[in-house]
Amino acid sequence: SPTIAALRDLGSPRLSPSPIKPQTPPLKAFLPRAFLPDTPELIVEMASGAPHTLKWGIMATGWIAEAFCKDLLTDPACRDVHDVRHEIVAVSSSSSVDRAASFVKKIDGPASAKLYGSYAELVADADVDIVYVATPHSHHFQNAMLALQAGKSVLCEKSLTVNASQAKRLVEVARAKNLFFMEAVWTRFFPLSIKVRELIASGEIGTVYRTLADLSFNESNDKDDGTVTFADSHRMVNKDLAGGALLDLGIYALTWVFQTLYHLQPEKDKEPPKVLAAMNHYRTGADESTGIICQFPGHKSMGIATTSLLVGTAPDGNDSAPAIRIQGSKGEIQVSDPAFRPTQFKVIKKGREGKVDVVDCPIPKDPKRDWGHGMFWEADECARCLRDGKKQSDTLPWSESIVIMETMEAALRQGGVKYPDLITSDIYDAKSPLNTGSR
Question: Where is the Gfo/Idh/MocA-like oxidoreductase N-terminal domain (predicted)?
Fold first, then answer.
């Protein structure tokens, strides 16, 4: 495994004792061996200039779908990816075909994309290889199940579901139908995240005993009266849409806790955490601020994940404080804000009199589209898994999504947040208003 010293020989990411101007790195320097083909057939496919094409059906047309689809439309070569590519073949809106058409126009999508005014039509399209579920998390269980029951592989936005029983049901169906299924926690697939995990695994900062992670946004009103800028009907604070800081923002803080303290443990030694949580409620009943302690007794490690809608991780909005601190016996890694889309980390070794190694990991852009958000890496993972016949990703396996969902469910229970029965049920209903668009 690479060490900080070895990074200097890679040419990228750039490394210096102080912050430097970001440069676009050759991503091969970041990619672990598991991301590269190891069979002659796949190597020939890449050498012949015939990348594997994954055909996407897009379920919903909100802002997260817009960012994801614009990433799908970028040239993979801009991120030094040559073995897979993506094609948007269909887009659906639960409200109207016109809305789907407006969405395709907004993202400068292909004129060939088929437009649907219902999710049922999308999942019935034989040209769709995989469905991207981009609806609110209140709808994820019913929407993802609709696609799985239709025989489609699924990439479902985070948080995967509203509770653990729903997540388990989705995994059961994906396994029974032999389909690929993954939670869209895009941060996991960043070259930066991969590199941080590699450094931890190599022992660069010794045994990791604690991770502190936060994702918070200061949405407080100027009146400073304890209210936020969102209307009460907004998905961020609306309990009917599983609103609240935890499921929308806190999952990113938990992502860093789990990928540093849980994911890297040997499979036989993995243990779900003991969870202690506290929440402050907004006037809608959703959580406005949440703190979670995850204790892993067998490893003597602890993660502290926090999230809030009233204060920000970095008060000046300019990385004045690290979003994540990964603390080991020989030093620590500090990851820049925001936790969901960091572009820099620092390695601070014990006893080095303040010397700091800084690694910049900028997100490449397609110059023709002037776009690059970072969601394309999770899409590339989907393409490689489907190409290779894998049903789940090693980077975010089903079991880990379930354990994280169990952790969030425990926090919600301890914090006294209860969502409506319609969105917490684990009974699939193709005619549910969550599938038909009447809710």
Answer: 55-182
**What band does 358 get if pLDDT is binned at 50, 70 and 90?**
very high
pTM above threshold 0.85:
yes
Q: Return the pLDDT at 14.
A: 33
Per-residue pLDDT, 244 = 97
Q: How many domains does the chain have?
A: 2
| Secondary structure, 3-state, the chain | CCCHHHHCCCCCCCEECCCCCCCCCCHHHCCCHHHCCCCHHHHHHHHCCCCEEEEEEEECCCHHHHHHHHHHCCCHHHHCCCCEEEEEEEEECCCCHHHHHHHHHHCCCCCCCEEECCHHHHHCCCCCCEEEECCCHHHHHHHHHHHHHCCCEEEEECCCCCCHHHHHHHHHHHHHCCCCEEEECHHHHCHHHHHHHHHHHCCCCCCEEEEEEEEECCCECCCCCCCECCCCCCCCCCHHHCCCHHHHHHHHHHHHHHHHHCCCCCHHHCCCCEEEEEEEECCCCCEEEEEEEEEEHHHCEEEEEEEECCCCCCCCCCCCCCCEEEEECCEEEEECCCCCCCCEEEEEECCCCCCCEEEECCCCCECCCCECCCCHHHHHHHHHHHHCCCCCCCCCCHHHHHHHHHHHHHHHHHHCCCCCHHHHCCCCCCCCHHHHCCC
Q: In terms of domains, do 338 and 215 share one?
A: yes
Instruction: Give yes or no: residues 74 and 148 share one domain.
Output: yes
CATH number of 255's domain: 3.30.360.10
Kindly report, residue by residue over 250-274, the tens digit of the pLDDT.
Answer: 999 999 999 999 999 999 999 999 9
Q: Is the pLDDT of residue 40 over 60?
A: no
